[in-house]
Design a protein that fits this description.
heterodimer; A: 12 helices; 70% helix; 0% strand; B: mainly alpha; 12 helices
Chain lengths: 244, 264
């Protein structure tokens, strides 16, 4: 992983959209009606950046390539589900990304010195757990989409479709509290706000329902995991080993 | 340059790539839904911004919609032409197949920039035009000849700048081999084009007009539509676009000197 330092640095930079959004929010005083101060909002978006950095998933793209190239066949013979391989890759890259994310955070604090804060240890631990759970949810969703490769070959376009609601509803561009009431009434039943909004609120110290959020995250994992199991076992029966 | 020859070659390009893309019809449908959802999503985001404010950066909601429309059209252009071709460049360089392109009796930049086409981008362009027509109605814009020609010029310039940016990054593949992530960075910066430039703070505004001229790409054409744009801004955009085009061309020729094939 360390071979590709520049790559990963660029990856980290490509995640800075939350900071642009923060700029729009504070520059136009959009937060006045929300009862969130500039300070809390800037912390929120910084945390959103962090959560996003450590919950990005791209398993569908790797799996699609491997399946089109016929690389999945040898993986299938091994006594380990190939998704563990991708899972380990993701974890390794998250660790390598950590220093770059810290550098970006450092620049952020230089530019906004008043937004420095130190979350207490239990909150920090809880938010690491919830970020990891968010990563797990996204990993499971994408693995389910990736399994569609067994049927359609080009599953990445379905992933791009699913990415749109993730982008707009997860809280990466605007905190979920700012959403209009007709969206807020149903959004907490979907997995989206638990991907970024909930861990970011938790870490930044904004008001949030800790036990409710964590239990919803775990609930979604328990719902998605059997689905993945099922689609995996159905898909491997369909598998026809392309390109080999 | 023999124009007729190039037109004939382009016709063949269109034919082959359409034929291969239409193999995946379901994919095109999924891409259309993605384009629609992404437009709905960004209008939703705009509506959040305008929930309690009448103006953002001096733009009303109806006016900001024009920017969305232009962004959608340009994004469609990117998805139709730039994205499929320029990701191909990366492949050519990594696998050493650029040799075959360079040997052909045709301009290499022409070949690699126009070889492929992705028809699902057309639908996005149409979607953008529909929204633009709708915006023209709700903003009560009077269509006149001078206005139409000005908007065409600015849109054309935006497309040139966009193309040069993409081509520039893809060209760097010759040195760095892998540039997927640089393209991701460009994508995330281009995202800014969805919002009026004035809604950002001064430093970001400077950054996005000098280093990466995203300001020129969507804001100036939208200002033309609203009749707000001064002549000097339009002239500036024409100059920036030509500078970018010429530099990207020069840069490509320069980079080719460093191309040392792969695995052969």
């Amino acid at each position: 992983m360390l071979e590709y330092r520049v790559e990963i640095a660029l990856w980290a930079i490509s995640g800075i959209i939350p900071f642009f959004m923060l700029n729009i929010w504070t520059n136009n005083n959009l937060n006045e009606s929300l009862n969130i101060s500039d300070l809390m909002l800037s912390r929120y978006f910084l945390c959103a950046f962090f959560v996003r950095q450590f919950s990005v998933v791209w398993v569908v793209f790797s799996f699609e390539e491997d399946s089109l190239m016929g690389k999945v066949s040898p993986y299938l013979i091994q006594p380990l589900n190939p998704f563990f391989r991708y899972f380990a890759q993701h974890l390794a890259e998250q660790i390598t990304r950590f220093p770059f994310a810290l550098i970006i955070a450092f620049f952020f604090f230089i530019l906004n010195p008043e937004s420095i804060w130190i979350p207490n240890l239990s909150i920090l631990l809880l938010s690491i757990v919830s970020t990891f759970l968010s990563f797990l949810i996204q990993f499971l969703i994408q693995s389910i989409v990736a399994c569609l490769c067994f049927w359609t070959e080009k599953a990445s376009s379905i992933e791009r479709l699913l990415f749109i609601p993730t982008l707009f509803l997860s809280g990466l561009l605007a905190p979920v509290v700012s959403f209009p009431a007709y969206v807020k009434s149903w959004i907490y039943l979907t997995p989206f706000p638990y991907l970024i909004d909930f861990p970011a609120n938790l870490l930044s110290g904004n008001k949030t329902n800790i036990s409710g959020g964590l239990s919803m995250q775990i609930l979604w994992i328990f719902l998605l995991f059997p689905l993945f199991k099922k689609i995996w076992s159905e898909g491997t029966k369909k598998y026809t080993a392309m390109g080999s | 340059m023999n124009l007729r020859k190039y037109l004939k070659v382009y016709k063949k390009f269109l034919h082959t790539s359409l034929a291969s893309e239409l193999e995946y019809k379901a994919n095109i449908l999924v891409d259309l839904i993605t384009a629609i959802l992404s437009l709905v999503g960004s209008i939703f985001l705009l509506s959040i911004f305008f929930q309690n404010n009448g103006y953002i950066g001096g733009w009303k909601f109806e006016q900001a919609l024009i920017i969305q429309a232009i962004y959608t059209i340009l994004n469609g252009v990117t998805n139709t032409w730039f994205n499929p071709n320029l990701t191909e460049i990366v492949k050519h360089i990594r696998e050493g197949t650029l040799d075959f392109v360079l040997l052909k009796p045709i301009d290499s930049q022409f070949f690699i920039s126009l070889k492929k086409i992705n028809p699902s981008g057309f639908l996005e362009i149409m979607l953008g035009f529909f929204l633009l027509l709708f915006c023209i109605r709700i903003n009560q814009i009077n269509l006149s000849l001078s206005f139409l020609s000005l908007s065409l010029i600015t849109m054309g310039c935006s497309i040139c700048i966009l193309y040069s940016l993409w081509f520039f990054i893809s060209t760097t593949t010759i040195w760095f081999v892998k540039t997927w992530n640089a393209i991701e960075v460009l994508r995330s910066f281009l995202y800014i084009g969805r919002f009026p430039l004035n809604s950002f703070s001064f430093s970001l505004r400077v950054f996005f007009s000098i280093f990466i001229p995203i300001a020129f790409i969507t804001t100036i054409p939208s200002e033309v539509f609203l009749g707000l744009s001064q002549m000097w801004k339009i002239l500036l955009e024409v100059i920036v676009a030509s500078v970018f085009l010429i530099t990207s061309r020069k840069f490509w020729l320069f980079a080719l000197k460093f191309y040392s094939s792969a695995s052969s």
